[in-house]
Every structure is written in C-alpha cells, then in structure tokens.
Design a protein that fits this description.
With 209 residues, the chain is of the alpha/beta class. It has 2 domains: 2-45 and 97-207, 3-Layer(aba) Sandwich (Ribosomal Protein L4, Chain: A); 49-96, no CATH class. 33% of the residues lie in helices and 15% in strands. The protein has helices at 21-24, 30-44, 103-119, 136-145, 162-168, 184-189, 197-207, and strands at residues 2-6, 12-18, 123-126, 153-157, 174-178, 192-196. A 6-stranded mixed β-sheet has the order 2-1-3-6-4-5. A hairpin with a 5-residue loop joins β1 and β2 (12-18). The longest helix is centred in the middle third of the chain and has 17 residues, at 103-119. The chain is elongated.
C-alpha cells in the first residue's frame, strides 16, 4: 500500500511511502482490540472509591430498644445498615483494576487498529514536523492546511518534540504522541491518524518485533 507524503499546507511532496502489509493490511482481530482498550481504560481508574461499613460509622453501640415486646424487628445498633446514617452493606473498597495482557495481544490490537485506519482512508502521511517556538496558531495552521481543523486527530512523531506537543495541548480535538507512546485506544479514538514520514519506519520496526 502506497500513500503520498504531504507538505504542511496539504500539497503533495512528490514522495510516496510504502506501508507494510504486515502492519497496515492484516486481518483485524476485534477481540484483541477489545482487550487492549479494556486494559487501557482500566488502568486509568484510580480505584480509590470507598464507603463506610457499619464497623466504621461513628455512633453509639447501645442497644436502641429492648429485644422483645415492641412489635417490631430486633435492633441492636444505630449503625445498622437498615437505619438512615448507618453503614453500607458490602460497599466499594479501594482496589486495583489493572490486569495483565500479553505483549503479542497488544501488538496485534495496534496492528488491527492501524489496518482499520488504512481501510477507512483515515490515514495521512505528513513530512516531518518541527516548530521553532511554542505557538498554538502554528499547529492550527498545520491542521487547516490538511483540512483537519474540525476533526479529532492523532499526530505521531518519530521522537519527542516539546514545541509541537505544547503547541497542540490547548486544542481539545488534537493529540500528539511519539511512536513508542501510541496505544490502541488513541488510534481508534482519532478520526484521522497523521503519521510523520519518519514515524512510519519506526512504527513498522516496533510492531515487527
């Protein structure tokens, strides 16, 4: 599969990039994508939720009424879950939601996501990007030149570039990551994936291991 390399203004440079079929044209595995996205979202959870149970409620332990003769049910403590202000039964406790996922499954999921982007024509190859200073308008101009100003985009850089990253940070629909940091969730969340020319070979090397 060949794609033309675009300039920052959206015009073609005359160069083309040959995308590996082993990365961008495999048989997508939806279950691998599901597992990888599930793990990513699970890892975002803090897991600090907590509610007090009856042993943790501040209150008297005095028996609030006599055992028999009232015509009602027995009640031993005001901290009972049956009363307003009492402890919660089996309430949430702090826990870790993360789980293990094999590297090959994660690799398959990313390949599947890249294949979907290629099939849907949601993949753009851009000449390498570098800004001299940090200005949001520079990144907005870049997206406008590619006709992507109103779309959710993920720009993948071959290596970290602080000026490009900080220039995009104020834009809610724009995301910038390096090849080593991309994940399946971000790939699928973006309407258009923009790969820098230098990122293609690094991405293929990373996913071919």
């Amino acid at each position: 599969m060949e794609l033309a390399v675009l300039k920052h203004n959206g015009e073609e440079t005359g160069r083309k990039v040959n995308l590996s079929d082993e990365i961008f044209a495999i048989e997508p595995n939806d279950h691998a994508i599901y597992l990888d996205v599930k793990q990513f979202l699970a890892n975002q959870r803090q897991g600090t939720h907590k509610s007090k149970e009856r042993a943790e409620i501040a209150g008297s332990t005095k028996k609030i009424k006599k055992q028999k003769g009232t015509g009602g049910a027995r009640a031993g403590s005001i901290k009972s879950p049956l009363f307003r202000g009492g402890g919660r039964v089996f309430g949430p406790r702090p826990r870790n939601y993360s789980f293990k996922l094999n590297k090959k499954v994660k690799q398959l999921a990313r390949k599947s996501a890249l294949t979907y982007k290629a099939k849907d024509n949601s993949l753009t190859i851009l000449e390498d990007v570098s800004f001299d200073n940090i200005k949001t308008k520079n990144y907005v101009a870049l997206l406008s030149g590619l006709s992507l100003a109103d779309k959710k985009t993920l720009l993948v850089l071959p290596e970290a570039n602080n000026n490009v990253y900080l220039s995009s940070r104020n834009l809610p629909k724009a995301q910038v990551k390096t090849v080593s940091d991309i994940n399946t969730y971000d790939l699928l969340h973006a309407d258009t994936l923009v790969l820098c020319e230098g990122s293609v070979s690094k991405l293929e090397t990373l996913l071919s291991k």
